[in-house]
Write a structure and sequence with these properties.
With about 70 residues, the protein is mainly β. It is about 10% helix and about 40% strand. It is globular.
């Protein structure tokens, strides 16, 4: 399986992330050592499910979710 690269905007930094072809959003988060249940991933202005397959050159924004009471 070959590697692909996606671009992630995280906390104002643009980070190239390499994952295997056929990887999902959850794999991108894993490669960044981020927990899927603590982050929202956007493609443009739309949230993307963590089960969505990524494609070479795509750009995503990752936002940390804060909760509490």
């Amino acid at each position: 399986m070959s590697e692909i690269e996606v671009i992630v905007d995280y906390r104002g930094k643009i980070i190239p992330v390499k994952v295997n072809e056929g990887s999902k959003i959850s794999d991108v988060l894993d490669a960044m050592n981020l927990y899927a249940d603590a982050h929202i991933v956007l493609r443009g202005r739309s949230p993307v499910p963590i089960t969505e397959t990524v494609h070479p050159g795509e750009t995503f924004k990752v936002i940390k979710v804060a909760s509490g009471g």
